[in-house]
Amino acid sequence: MQVLTFAFQESTFALPIEGVAEVIRTPSLTLLPGAPPGLAGLINLRGRMIPVVDPRFYLGHDASRPLRHVIVVMGEGELMGLGVEEVEGIVETPVPKGVPDIVEGRLSPLIYGYFQWGGKFVFTWHAYGPFLLWDFMDSSGEMLS
Question: Which of 42, 128, 132, 138 is most exposed, with minimal Cβ within 10 Å?
Answer without folding.
Answer: 138
